[in-house]
Amino acid sequence: MAKEWIIGNETAKQMLARVVKERPLLLLPHPLHRVPLSVNNIVEIAGPSPSAKTEILIQMVANCILPKDRNGVEYGGLERPVLFIDLDCRLDVFRLSQILKLRIAKANKKTGVGCEYDDVEVFKESMNRFSYTRCYNSFEFLAALKTLRYTLEKGRTLNVSGKEFRVLMIDNIGAFYWIDRGLSSLPQRNPNRKNACLQTVFETVVNEISKLLLLHPMLVLATKTVTSQVKSSYSRRGSGWSNIMYREYMPSIWQSFVTHRILVRASNDKRNVQNHVCYLAEWLLPALNVLDEFVVVDSGIFASI
Which of 136, 231, 268, 276 could form a disulfide with 295 if both were Cys (CB 3.0 to 4.6 A apart)? Predict the structure, then answer.
């Protein structure tokens, strides 16, 4: 088998077909729909608070864990497990269950074959694909990352979900920034050990995620709260952005690790769409000259136009 792999030959068309099959592109919901993403992409969802960043993650969770179809009913999900690491400790699980129940009920109503029993079973099946971890400091976050590989291997051995994880979500990657930055000013007790500071923490974070992706290719979605300032590494000038600039504060090792970045915020024009606040989204990496508008409703996120 190894010899066949070494001496094997394939055309470019065959290679592309194999890679796309092994690592398919993921079609994400609005407002992440404009850029095709695949496993091993690191997507940063940046924006001030509030700007619906966590809501985008919840919408993505629902799309992943819902089944594709059951008993002739199309639910439109990816039927994939999700790993969610909550660093803000503010995830509203009730909100996730609300979106799931509304989407399940809508799909059953559309076909006219659903019943309350089916709703409950599909809801339970979906929630079994959702893995949630809450961390209260960087040390717990690093411990969670270090144990993920063992957890995934154990799950694969026991065939818990039947399918491999394809999405890792982190909310919010900069939650402990000021605490870790303050640690660098403390005196180092043991000169033979690395000082626990902001730089070493994120070096370890990037290293652990990289090692995890080598064995378990996944799409990584990480939110980041930003604040405005006079000078910034990225800004948006134009209708809707009102010349607002945002401060980049994450260490360079994380900035270079990110492969995609999208900036989201509430609209400045105070315009409500069907009694809902309108939000704006624009891709910074890759840079797209497109401004998307979206609203958050009970059943999820939808384009406002």
Answer: 276
